[in-house]
Amino acid sequence: MTRYALFLGGDMDATPRLMSQVAGLPAIAADSGMKHAETLGVTPELWIGDFDSVTPGDMERFRDVAMERHPVDKDMTDGDLAFREAIRRGARSLLVVGAFGGARLDHAMQITMAAIGLHEAGIDTMLTDGRQEGHPLRIGEENRFELSEGTLFSILVFADLKDLSVSGARWPLADEAIPFGSSRTLSNVAEGPVTITLSAGRGLLLVTQDVIEPASTDRMVAEMIADAAESGEGAG
């Protein structure tokens, strides 16, 4: 399966995990996403966009990268241009770096929804800023994620979820109906690998890789200390 790294203009932390994920992948940078590629030591095979978010100095610094310039007045974002070009070049899997945050909420939301649509069309897609990772969920399949114990995760609901089951989590679910916009599936905690299934709807698993809760034994001790403090036990 051909996997491409796409560099967009949202937020990015150059974590060791992200650096290992992009290593060796063919890449396309969209507009200011070229700076993220540079930070991670990646030379894209194409730099695409209208270049309204880069400076003449950037253009000079990256002059050896193949460029495809588009007009500012166009009916697609630079991110969409990068998606389409990667697929045209044979990508069947996308790692989208710089997909979250940034100055434009509308762009970030559109990229998230586009990723869900691509995933439904059979293009395996993952969104990341280096610390948060977004995984569109497949319907009618077992979605399994190798998460460490204590990892914080949420399921964002973009359309009513039917028969949602979550196992391997502190708060498991079994064949639940979750309406669009519900907060019920936010801020869960992995107890190890997490498996998610659903029969209908659109959802995105958002994993916060750098937020790890204490191990179970540590939590038990903390709870015992808190209970003792509330009851006044151990007071001199």
From TrEMBL:
- Which EC number(s) does the record attach to this protein? 2.7.6.2
Cross-referenced SUPFAM superfamilies, in alphabetical order?
Thiamin pyrophosphokinase, catalytic domain
- Give yes or no: UniProt keyword Cytoplasm: no
**Organism domain of life:** Bacteria
Q: Which GO terms describe its molecular function?
A: ATP binding; kinase activity; thiamine binding; thiamine diphosphokinase activity
List the GO biological process terms.
thiamine diphosphate biosynthetic process; thiamine metabolic process
Which keywords annotate this record? ATP-binding, Kinase, Nucleotide-binding, Transferase
- Cite a single Pfam family from the UniProt record: TPK_catalytic
**Record domain Thiamin pyrophosphokinase thiamin-binding: where:** 140-204
PANTHER family, per the entry: THIAMINE PYROPHOSPHOKINASE
Full protein name: Thiamine diphosphokinase
- State the organism of origin: Notoacmeibacter marinus
